[in-house]
Amino acid sequence: VSSTEDVITYSKNIIVFDRNSKTILFDKNSKEKVPIASTTKILTCIIALETLDFNENPIYVISQTAASARGSTLGLKYNKTISLEDLLYGLMLRSGNDCAILLAEIISGDIDSFSILMNQKAQNLNLLNSNFTSPHGLDDENHYSTAYDLALISKYAMQNETFRTIVSTTYYKLP
Q: pTM of the prediction?
């Protein structure tokens, strides 16, 4: 494709690049800062996988804050328990805001502290046009990224075998 005028798209922001060479194959406003909603959970998941021991599959008690999450949720219930594996599958397959909040609390104590960790990770990944204020991506004018930065986050996340397994799963049943 020689230019964006040659392609009809319905998305405002797009990037297609070769993940090995980072050669950009198609670009349409890929460096424009925009709200990123649930794609935020890619970074939440990778931080969890790098911080917590997935192989031990620990069990966690669900907080009131996580249980009262709004938007897309897994339906976590206050004071019940859930395994790390179920949390991560609920985060990525159901886009569970409740799962994102509980992971933030487990890792950093609260959402604000986890957001600091997210921004540090973004800086380490050289994401120049991203800022995170939550683990779930619910609307906040200070929570944004670009198609380009999201492509870099996704490229990084796909290097993790467990992440690849989770996001390629077509069916997962919670106990």
A: 0.92
21 part of the active site: no
Residue 68 catalytic?
A: no
Cβ-proximal residues to 124 (8 Å cutoff; 6+ apart), any chain: none
Structure tokens at 55: 């192989």
For the stretch 54-64, pLDDT in tens is 999 999 999 99
Contact 48, 107 (CB under 8 A): yes
Token pair in block for residue 152: 């870099």
Contacts of 104 (CB under 8 A, 6+ apart): 44, 110, 111, 113, 114, 115, 134, 135
Catalytic residue among 30, 63, 95, 115: 95
H helices of the chain, in order, are 40-51, 64-67, 84-93, 97-108, 111-124, 147-157, 161-168
